[in-house]
Specification:
- The complex is a heterodimer of chains A (about 120) and B (about 110).
- Chain A is mainly beta and about 120 residues long.
- Chain A has strands at about 5, 10-15, 20-25, 30-35, 45-50, 55, 65, 75-80, 85-95, 105, 110-115.
- Chain A is built from no helices and eleven strands.
- In chain A, the strands form two sheets. In chain A, strands 2, 4, 5, 6, 9, 10 and 11 form a seven-stranded mixed sheet that branches.
- Chain A is globular, with a radius of gyration of 14 Å.
- The termini of chain B are far apart.
- Classes of the chains: A mainly beta (about 120), B mainly beta (about 110).
Chain lengths: ~120, ~110
């Protein structure tokens, strides 16, 4: 089945130790998104790729970086995780056409714990 | 800042009852979408309603959109325990590739 896969599902890291979260998709969608979601809050968009074009949100900290080496894969790098970065990180994809945003397909998320 | 605000923040009902939740937004939109999120999981798309549509149905779901009031509602009829989840509205503008999510409504359906 076509899907969005996130690995690992749970990630524990130490304060200040770089960590990478990964996302892959078999949907062949042109847009991939990374969201941060804290407990009982709405998902907050960090950045997205439209094909190879990277689009950063204005309030995304520099501590967060992303890479999309090909259509199928996208990575979220947190260079120096702080306690406040503990959250669920959600990857999503969409096939965006000229008419505007269509539905997004989400992965199961990676729960990040920072010790 | 969030585009959408949802009301109520939490809802508790008995199985078989209907659940209604509302979403308000601030700027012009191309479409509005509703998503469900089970605890600790990713979001699942439920329904999309375009700005030129007023009502849409999908199974036990009914969505309305009032662009003059900048509001939408999601009705779940004949609720089941499996409907227990958080429900988010999300708006898409005419330009760009992004969704802006509301704060969500936590729904508890008691068996």
């Amino acid at each position: 089945d076509a899907m969005v896969i996130q690995n690992p599902r749970y990630q524990v890291t130490q304060f200040g130790k770089p960590v990478t979260l990964s996302c892959s998709q078999t949907l062949n969608h042109n847009v991939m998104y990374w969201y941060q979601q804290k407990s009982s809050q709405a998902p907050k968009l960090l950045f997205h790729y439209y094909d190879k074009d990277f689009n950063n949100e204005a309030d995304t900290p520099d501590n967060f970086q992303s890479r999309r080496p090909n259509t199928s894969f996208c990575f979220l790098d947190i260079r120096s995780p702080g306690l406040g970065d503990a959250a669920m990180y959600l990857c999503a994809t969409s096939r965006v056409r000229l008419a505007g945003v269509n539905e997004q397909f989400f992965g199961p998320g990676t729960r990040l714990t920072v010790l | 800042s969030q585009q959408g605000e949802e009301d109520p923040q939490a809802l508790s009902i008995q199985e078989g009852e209907n659940a209604t939740m509302n979403c308000s937004y601030k700027t012009s939109i191309n479409n509005l979408q509703w998503y469900r999120q089970n605890s600790g999981r990713g979001l699942v798309h439920l329904i999309l309603i375009r700005s030129n549509e007023r009502e849409k149905h999908s199974g036990r779901l009914r969505v309305t959109l009032d662009t003059s009031k900048k509001s939408s509602s999601l009705l779940i009829t004949a609720s089941r325990a499996a409907d227990t989840a958080s429900y988010f509205c999300a708006t898409a503008k005419a330009a760009g590739n992004k969704l802006t999510f509301g704060g969500g409504t936590r729904v508890l359906v008691k068996p």
